[in-house]
Amino acid sequence: MYKVNEVFETIQGEGSFTGAAAIFIRLQGCPVGCSWCDTKHTWEIKDTLRQPLGDIVIKTAETEHWAEVSPAELLALFATEGYQAKHVVITGGEPCMYDLNPLCHILHQHGYSTQIETSGTFEVKAPADTWVTVSPKVNMAGGYTVLQSALDRANEIKHPVAMEKHVDELLQLLQRTDTTAKLVYLQPISQQRRATELAIAMCKRYNFRLSVQVHKYLGIS
Ligand code: SF4
């Protein structure tokens, strides 16, 4: 069973799947504590805020409410909601607090591709053909470290950047893993011009790719 904060269909706005129609499953719970987190409403799992799945899918605002849902129930929801996307992004919160194998397996059996967006601070429990995006969170308030196993498992590493020290953090992380088959992105931490200009300059300097949060420029979820 998974604690789900929201489910919605949209366009993936980040990383190598940018532009793909996607169903997002946002799981509840994250202890990592990034100060600039834009999903702080997913951090806590409060028993008093549990709701039926039907109430979760009609949310019109970000709230801390969550529903406990099985993989089969999530799959059935896609049909009742009429979702057409065949790519599923499992995000959070920190989705790797959960064993994602059962959910990914049932989705793959029904023709969906899967992608996980994780901080890299929990072991990735997912099938080999799930695309893993690690957005490494270094020195955050929760005191978690980026795991070697998560770095090695990553298909893409997408690092949030606001200052040059964030690029230095990434360079240190990359020394720990073979990047031959990985895509490496810098993603401005906000839409502010300064962060974007820094990311562009650093992409040119180190031959990284640039990921901007396209959905935020479009004003969609
Ligand atoms: S890991 Fe993600 S959800 Fe958790 S605090 Fe950091 S940005 Fe927010």
Automatic annotation (TrEMBL):
Q: At which positions is [4Fe-4S] cluster bound?
A: C30, C34, C37
Q: State what protein this is by name.
A: 7-carboxy-7-deazaguanine synthase
In which domain of life is the source organism classified? Bacteria
Kindly list the positions annotated as binding substrate.
I11, Q12, G13, R26, T91
Q: Which UniProt keywords apply?
A: 4Fe-4S, Iron, Iron-sulfur, Lyase, Magnesium, Metal-binding, Queuosine biosynthesis, S-adenosyl-L-methionine
Recorded metabolic or biological pathway in which this protein acts:
Purine metabolism; 7-cyano-7-deazaguanine biosynthesis
Subunit (UniProt):
Homodimer.
Q: What is its EC number?
A: 4.3.99.3
